[in-house]
Amino acid sequence: MWTLARRKVVWAYIFLAIPIVFFAYIRIYPALFAFQMSLHDYNPLATEQPYVGLDNYEKLVNELNKRKSPTKAAFQNTANYLLLGVPIQLCLALMIALMLNEIRFMSTFYRIMFFLPFVTSTIAIAWVFRMLYQPRFGLINVMLQLVSLPQQPFLNSPKQALPSVLSLVIWQGMGFAVIIFLAGLKQIPRTYYEAAEVDGASRWHTFRFITLPLLNPTIVFLLVLQTISFLRMFAPVLAMTEQGRGGPLDSTTTVVLRVYREAFTSFDMGYASSLTVVLFAFILIITIIQLRVTARRVN
Amino acid sequence: MESITPSNLFRERSDSRAVGSRRGEWRYRAFSYLVLTICALTMVVPFIWMLSTSFKPEKEILRRNFFPNQATVDNYSEVITETDLPLWYKNSFIVAVFSTISVAFFDSLAGYVFAKYQFPGKRPIFIIFLTSLMVPTEMLIIPWFIMSSNPPIGGSWVDTYWGIAFPGVITASGIFLMRQFMQGVPDELLDAGRIDGVSEFGLYWRVAVPLSLPAIGALCIFNFLGNWNAFIWPLIATSKSEMFTLPVGIQLFSSEAQTPWNLIMTGASLSVVPLLIVVIIFQRYIIEGIALTGLKG
User: Fold this and answer.
1) Best of A204, A276, A285 to mutate (most B CBs within 10 Å, chain B)
2) What is the pLDDT of residues B230-243, one digit of tens each?
3) Residues B99 and B54 in one domain
4) Residue A188: exposure state from Cβ atoms within 10 A (0-12, 13-18, ≥19)
5) Do residue A96 and residue B39 have CB atoms under 8 angstroms apart?
6) Which residues of B touch A123 (CB under 8 A)?
7) Nearest to B251 by CA among A171, A132, A261, A236
8) Last residue of some domain: B41, B59, B78?
9) Number of domains comprising chain A
10) Which of A45, A120, A181, A214 has the highest number of chain B CBs within 10 A, making it the mutation to test binding with B?
11) Looking at the domain assignment, is residue B120 inside a domain?
12) Contact B195/A at CB under 8 A
């Protein structure tokens, strides 16, 4: 006779059978496969995929050491997107969330406005922004002319293209951060604010010494999430640059765009895989830092 | 601290007037409304511009008027009849619905098992599931592409619905979310069911699922949106226009050298507007869901 406990164990495995097979075959195995590919000269069209050791990584290091190379540009741009984008996005979102948190009239309306971009297709909205940035007839240049400011090249200029693409990404992702911040703000007990008010604390002091420290877990969470999403930037650059090349002059290209180009245009899947391994390493480091930070808080 | 549940997350704070007594409060409030209005306008103007351009005849594109002088729906009939857009719609819909149903079932079932069963290997299996969250999709697309061209069962998965959908039919984040929720299902209820002879699957289906419907609902909405907007994998998993999903179709249609801007904006409007309407209708659940999955995840 089966005991209840044993029957439950059997059922647990039956229920988990398909998910286990799925994760093993669709998530774990391909991740290992990517590592393995990065050690081969992997061209899917060739008859052989010879083992080349760390050659792909050596190539990557060489590319990064060159004065100029698409790969180097991709890493530099990704760093720029991230280092500019994450702080700007989080500061704006926090400011908006603080304001939204204190108003009642039309607050739902504003909330909807802010998160609409977040749920729309990046590709569709990137094309809309691409048109907004056009010379002469693009809305932004039309408005600049209305107030007699000089016309700007935006996406056509190697200097302005990156901030232009970045603006779209910040614009689109901000609503998410606003909503997470709002949820975090609601978690802060009202009594702290009441006490601060009784003590006559200024608005700034209340923010600095109550809101900010108590919002810390939310900030860490968003910091990690947004950093990872900036590291993975791809679709906006593909949609907003000429032929999706990350131009002009590689000024907007990203690591994932390089992966896509190397793997599916040049069919150098070994090299592309080595790039994804580096990307994975970055995400792993960020996640470990997050776990450390969060764990320390709990202790 | 009170626990987070969908119902109390965004309940209006009844005591929010408590802070209203501060001096200069109305000035701060007026300033808030001003800033919020400017920001909200920045959020909607691109959408309005997109719609407005989609109703312009081609000769008006280079003019500087915001709204069309002679509004026309020709762009819409052209995009719908001349491109495969109706098919892209259908494909996106099928893929998103299929993945969402699968995720709702498997994620909640796995979440239930992790929350309510004790079995050897539980911790390592759960950790392996969670670790897979750290592997970015971008790392997997190349192996998936190779696997899809030469799968273990059947012919090539490229240009099939399964080929587009398979990476997302079970999600680790969903399992994690459902596990958190299923922990709230009372053990007494399950044991009472067992005494009454309810099968183990029956306990999941008739006790655990009905008790976690809000979480499953949030999971479904998110998953649907995520799949509807998914881009990089569908771009690689499809090669024929008839099999493109909406974002892939829009990208490739818009990138063609001759495509005029009014048609690009029409394509964009057609892909964005129906979703916006759905989102506005379900906004309450979606905002709650974002906060919920965000905080738990």
Assistant:
1) A276
2) 999 999 999 999 99
3) no
4) middle
5) yes
6) 231, 247-248, 250-251, 271
7) A236
8) B78
9) 1
10) A120
11) yes
12) no
